[in-house]
Amino acid sequence: DTAVSQTPKYLVTQMGNDKSIKCEQNLGHDTMYWYKQDSKKFLKIMFSYNNKELIINETVPNRFSPKSPDKAHLNLHINSLELGDSAVYFCASSQMAFQETQYFGPGTRLLVL
Amino acid sequence: AQTVTQSQPEMSVQEAETVTLSCTYDTSESDYYLFWYKQPPSRQMILVIRQEAYKQQNATENRFSVNFQKAAKSFSLKISDSQLGDAAMYFCSLYSGNTGKLIFGQGTTLQVKP
Prior knowledge:
The structure holds two protein chains of two kinds.
Chain A: E1 4-7, E2 10-13, E3 19-25, E4 31-37, E5 43-50, E6 53-57, E7 64-70, E8 73-78, E9 87-94, E10 103-104, E11 108-112
Parallel strand pairs in A: 2-11
Antiparallel strand pairs in A: 1-3, 3-8, 4-5, 4-9, 5-6, 7-8, 9-10, 9-11
Chain B: E1 3-5, E2 10-14, E3 19-21, E4 24-26, E5 32-39, E6 46-52, E7 60-61, E8 64-69, E9 74-79, E10 88-96, E11 102-104, E12 108-113
Parallel strand pairs in B: 2-12
Antiparallel strand pairs in B: 1-4, 3-9, 5-6, 5-10, 7-8, 8-9, 10-11, 10-12
């Protein structure tokens, strides 16, 4: 049983398209996160939701919009994709907000052509 | 601002030998945690070890141990009896209790030679 799962694992798309990445956790955690790992492998937090409420919102273009339909799901929608959006996107979860140990999903590799 | 620095982009070790990966960090907070994550070629982020800043005792997990020097803001990872499966990118990270954010270093790629 996968604790934190993401779909799809790979996503290849054209510039200007809109795409979504889905994340689900079956750990019963309250808090979920999105991270971006760029081509140099640098990992940075983008968003965090706690019980469907946005609690962390880093300086991210507003083309990126997270949505949390319930506390087990956190989706990432990206509008008008740009070449620079190519990266690996990781979802993670923790038991509660401001709880230090986070569990990561397998990542989604996004390639924008 | 909080920062995490890994000054070794690449390291290599002979199988069964010991290797130490370096990490320094900067924070003005007293409530924080430090982690080492492993990212193998499969790209899954795997938690290797964690250290609470308020604990003086160094954390250990089987072959993995840390040397936590709080005053020097240093947090190195020692891997003993290295195995081929240890080959991966290792990330040092700092969790801030105030902001709820996990901040990562640049990563160190570890090669294990048979």
